[in-house]
Amino acid sequence: MTGDVAVLGAGMHPWGKWGRSFVEYGVAAVRAALADAGLEWRQIGSIVGADTVRGGYPGYVAGATFAKALGWQGARVTSVYAACASGTQAVSTARAQILSGLADVVLVVGADAAPKGFFRPAGGDRPDDPDWLRFRVLGATNPAYFGLYARRRMAVHGDTLEDFAQVKVKNAALGALNANARYRKPVTAQEVAASPVVADPLRLLDICATSDGGAALVLSSMEFARRHGVAEPVRIRAVSTVTPRYPNPVLDLPDIATDSAVAVEPAAEAFRASIARAAYEEAGVGPEDLSFAEVYDLSTALELQWYEDLGLCGEGEGAKLLRDCETTPGGRIPVNMSGGLASFGEAVPAQAIAQVCEVTWQLRGQAGDRQVAGARVGITANQGLFGHGSAVIAVR
C-alpha cells in the first residue's frame, strides 16, 4: 500500500501581532484551507489540532477548541503538543489515520497568539522541568542559545557575521513577496549589522520574532482525492518525527549540558541530520532530488546549519553554499522561498504546518513571484524542544 496522502487544501491567517485569540487565527486558516479543497467542514471526518500552551485549557485541547468554534459535527478529534514540531506531529497523526482507514479526509490546524519578546517556560515553579531550569539556573533564553550556536559555527567552520547577514537579506527579499508574511520589506546587510546586538554575535535582525498566526491543511486518501476530482494532487510522501540518539554531544535546547561521550561513541550523525535521513529513506529520494527546502531559521546561523543537516552540502560548507548563491531563487536548491521565520516570526503550533502550505503552493505552481520553476519535490525541516524531529517531504 502506498504511503502517500493527498494535500487537498492549504490555508493561512497572515502572521503579525494582531492582539486576538489563537482560535480566530486558526478558524480563518481552516476556512481558507476548506475553500482551497472545495470541501465543507461537515465533510471532514477527523480534526487534528496542534496545541499552544499559551492558550490556557483551550490551547491544550486545541483540536476540540477548533472543532467547537467551527461547529460540533461529530468528527474524530486529536490534540498534539511537540513545541515547534507540533505541526508535523499533527500532520503525522492525520496521515496515520488516513492510511489506517480511520478517516478519508482529515483537517490539520495550528495557531498561536505569542507573547512580546522571547518565549518563556509556562508559569509556575517546576524544578524537574529542563525548560524551566535552563531559564532559572542559567538564564539561557532562546536568543542566548542562538548566539552560542552562532559562535560555535564561527569557531568550528569559520562562518562570519557577513554570512549570517546574507541569510537575512535573502529571506527578507522573499518575505517581501509573501502576502502572509509579517515583515514585508527588503533588508540590506548594512541594516543587519547596524541593528542592536541581542546575543553576541547575533543582531536583532539575525533572530526571528514571536508572532501571531495560523495555518491549516486538508489531507485525504488518494482514493478520496480521485473521487473528489483531483487526479494529480500534491502528495505527502514522508513524515519524520525521530528522536536523538545517545550520546548527543552538541548542546541543544532545552538541555544545559551535553550527554557524556566518555563511555559511548557518539552517533555517526547529528540529531538534525538523522531527521532528514529518516525522511529521505521513507520517501525514496535524496538531497539531489529536491527542488527546494523550507527550513527552521530561528536565527540566521541556524539556517546555515540546516543546509548541512539536510545534506545540501558537506559539513562546514553551509556558508559557501550561500555565498555561491545556490540557496537563492534560481540557485541549485532554493531555501525558504516563503521568507522563512525571518519574515514570519514564530507562531509555534502553526509554523510546521505553514511550511507544508508553502511546499504545497510551490509544487502546484501557485507561489507567484516566489515560484521555484519546475518544482517537483520539496522538504520541510524544523525541530521541537525535548528531542522532537520534524520533517515532511511532498511531491507532485
Task: Give structural notes.
The chain is of the alpha/beta class and 396 residues long. 37% of the residues lie in helices and 18% in strands. It has 14 helices and 11 strands. The protein has helices at 22-37, 56-60, 62-70, 86-100, 130-138, 142-157, 161-175, 189-194, 222-227, 271-283, 300-309, 318-323, 340-344, 348-364, and strands at residues 5-16, 46-50, 76-80, 105-112, 197-199, 202-203, 212-220, 234-240, 292-295, 377-384, 388-395. Strands 3-2-4-7-1-8-11-10-9 form a 9-stranded mixed sheet, with helices on both faces. It has a two-stranded antiparallel sheet with strand order 5-6. A hairpin with a 2-residue loop joins β5 (197-199) and β6. α4 (86-100) packs across α14 (348-364), α6 (142-157) packs across α11 and α7 (161-175) crosses α11. The longest helix has 17 residues, at 348-364. The protein starts with a strand and ends with a strand. The model has no long low-confidence stretch (mean pLDDT 95).
How is this fold's topology laid out?
Blueprint: E1 5-16, H1 22-37, E2 46-50, H2 56-60, H3 62-70, E3 76-80, H4 86-100, E4 105-112, H5 130-138, H6 142-157, H7 161-175, H8 189-194, E5 197-199, E6 202-203, E7 212-220, H9 222-227, E8 234-240, H10 271-283, E9 292-295, H11 300-309, H12 318-323, H13 340-344, H14 348-364, E10 377-384, E11 388-395
Parallel strand pairs: 2-3, 2-4, 9-10
Antiparallel strand pairs: 1-7, 1-8, 4-7, 5-6, 8-11, 10-11
Helix pairs in contact: 4-14, 6-11, 7-11
